[in-house]
Design goal:
Blueprint lengths: L13 H12 L3 E3 L15 E3 L14
Parallel strand pairs: 1-2
Length: 63
């Protein structure tokens, strides 16, 4: 399952919401926010940080 949280304005709570969902449901996160605090909440194996120009990686079926 993929859930996308998108917004064009900063400080709307997108990161907070996505961290809470991932933590509660056992999901992983892919983010292009290099300064994200997601590392403080989730184990490194559940986090992928991309640069702004990076391609979305292939997501395994069992994730």
């Amino acid at each position: 399952m993929l859930i996308t949280i998108v917004g064009t304005k900063g400080s709307q709570g997108k990161s907070t919401l996505s961290h809470a969902i991932a933590y509660e449901k056992g999901f992983g996160i892919i983010t292009n926010d290099i300064d994200s605090s997601v590392d403080e909440f989730l184990p490194k194996e559940r986090v992928i940080k991309l640069g702004n120009d990076s391609e979305l990686p292939e997501i395994p079926e069992d994730v």
